[in-house]
Structures are given as structure tokens and as C-alpha cells.
């Protein structure tokens, strides 16, 4: 399973998606900060599964229909930061789907995730991550779970990794930093948490017009 995650920076990088899919041939595409009213039904052979509707800028997921069948989809709201309460940028911070691999008959849960911005505390983002993984597991108890996206967690990842492991999940970073807009904030913002999957690698792809670099996750059922 090959999954690309990309924060489009307020939809600015949307025009890159067709070339990105053509170049890297993912099975699933997870997006953050996309204009959900301006998304095509398909991108390079991938079909739109769902997009959030609570805000213009939100989350979306595409997949290859001849590889996966969608069994259920869920959008999830998480505990809000002060930034969320004042500016209301996003209510739904998780878009998850229970999928069936057509060839193997195995189920898997995949989600696009966007954590609270850097103005929030890391403790809030840890709370959001724990809650998101718990809600996703309810889509299919004992199924493998892969949650990719913008975690907004550039420092103290050891604490996050420990928290994730205590709940039975693994935290996996990509092979290079993913956020480049401000030198002082550069680091790994986009990565994956998972259970029941072997993640062989996460590749940071070349910079586009977004301040985030897309990542390509390669995983298989453990």
C-alpha cells in the first residue's frame, strides 16, 4: 500500500496533484488544507472517497477503486484549541475510511489527519492524536490502522512517541524534514501513526508550492 499525504497550504498546491499521482503512483491520497468545494471527482486514476464539509478548507481522501472498496467513512471532530474556538478554522480534523483490499480480502483503516496549529500546546495535540486513533479503531476493531497527515509537532517527539506506544501504536517519521516555510520552525511535521502494519519507509517528496513537502508512505499488513 502506497499512501501520499500532502498539506496543500490553503489549496495553493492543488494544481500539483495530478503530476504527483502520475510520478509516484499511490493507491491512496490524503489531503489537508484543501478547498473541499473545488476538488475534482478523480485525480490521475484515483477517485474521491470523501471530503469534509464543516469548513471550506478541510480534509479529503482519494483512492484507487480497482484496489480498494470503501466500506465506511467517518469524519471526526476533536478537542479544540483556543485558535479553533476564536477563528474556527476547522471542526473536522480527521477523515477516516474503512477499506477492503479487493485482492487479499483484508480490511484496513486509513485516515487523513490535521492537528491543531502551533499556537496550541503539545499536550492538546497529544490528546487529539490519542482521541483520533481511538475513534478510528471503532471503525473496525482489530483492523490495521494508518493515520497520516500534518501533526504540527516539530519538537519533543520522544514524548509523543512514548504516548503513542503506550496506546499500542507506532510513530514513524519520514526520511527528511517536511516543513520549510520558516527556518526556526523547520522539522518533521508530516508523518504517520499506525498499528498492525509494517511501514518499510516514508519518503519526503520534493518541495512544491506548499510550505509542507508531501510524504509517501509504503506499508503492508504485518
Give a structural overview:
- Residues 5-155 form the Endonuclease/exonuclease/phosphatase domain.
- This is Endonuclease/exonuclease/phosphatase family protein.
- Keywords: Endonuclease, Hydrolase, Nuclease.
- The structure is a single chain.
- The chain has four helices and 13 strands.
- It has one domain (2-221): Endonuclease/exonuclease/phosphatase (Deoxyribonuclease I, Chain A, 4-Layer Sandwich), CATH 3.60.10.10.
- The chain has helices at residues 17-24, 82-87, 122-137, 157-166, and strands spanning 2-7, 28-35, 42-43, 46-51, 57-63, 68-77, 92-101, 107-114, 145-150, 170-172, 190-195, 197-204, 215-221.
- The longest helix has 16 residues, at 122-137.
- The protein has 222 residues and is α+β, with helices and mostly antiparallel strands.
- The chain is 18% helix and 39% strand.
- The strands form two sheets. The protein has a seven-stranded mixed β-sheet with strand order 3-4-5-2-1-13-12.
Search tags:
Deoxyribonuclease I, Chain A; endonuclease; 6-stranded mixed β-sheet; 7-stranded mixed β-sheet; alpha+beta; endonuclease activity; 18% helix; globular; 222 residues
Q: How does the helix and strand content classify structurally?
A: alpha+beta
How would you spell out the order of helices and strands? EHEEEEEHEEHEHEEEE
How many strands, which pairing sense, and closed or not: the largest β-sheet? 7 strands, mixed
| CATH architecture assignment | 4-Layer Sandwich
Give me the count of strands.
Answer: 13
Q: Could you estimate the helical fraction of the residues in percent?
A: 10-25%
Kindly give the count of domains: 1
Number of helices: 4
- Strand arrangement, largest sheet? 3-4-5-2-1-13-12
Amino acid at each position: 500500500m502506497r499512501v501520499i499525504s500532502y498539506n496543500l497550504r490553503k489549496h495553493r498546491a492543488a494544481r500539483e496533484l495530478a503530476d504527483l499521482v502520475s510520478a509516484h503512483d499511490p493507491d491512496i491520497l490524503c489531503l489537508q488544507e484543501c478547498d473541499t468545494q473545488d476538488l475534482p471527482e478523480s485525480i490521475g486514476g484515483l477517485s474521491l472517497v470523501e471530503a469534509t464539509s464543516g469548513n471550506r478548507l478541510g480534509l479529503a481522501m482519494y483512492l484507487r477503486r480497482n484496489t480498494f472498496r470503501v466500506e465506511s467513512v467517518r469524519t471526526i471532530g476533536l478537542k479544540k484549541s483556543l485558535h479553533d474556538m476564536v477563528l474556527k478554522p476547522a471542526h473536522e480534523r480527521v477523515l477516516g475510511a474503512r477499506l477492503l483490499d479487493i485482492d487479499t480480502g483484508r480490511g484496513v483503516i486509513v485516515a487523513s489527519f490535521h492537528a491543531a496549529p502551533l499556537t496550541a500546546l503539545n499536550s492538546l495535540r497529544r490528546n487529539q492524536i490519542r482521541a483520533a486513533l481511538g475513534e478510528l479503531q471503532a471503525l473496525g476493531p482489530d483492523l490495521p490502522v494508518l493515520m497520516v497527515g500534518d501533526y504540527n509537532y516539530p519538537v519533543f517527539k520522544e514524548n509523543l512517541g512514548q504516548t503513542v506506544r503506550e496506546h499500542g501504536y507506532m510513530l514513524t517519521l519520514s526520511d527528511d524534514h517536511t516543513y520549510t516555510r520558516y527556518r526556526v520552525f523547520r522539522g518533521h511535521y508530516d508523518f504517520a501513526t499506525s498499528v498492525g502494519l509494517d511501514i518499510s519507509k516514508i519518503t519526503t517528496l520534493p518541495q512544491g508550492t506548499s510550505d509542507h513537502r508531501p510524504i509517501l508512505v509504503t506499508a503492508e499488513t504485518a
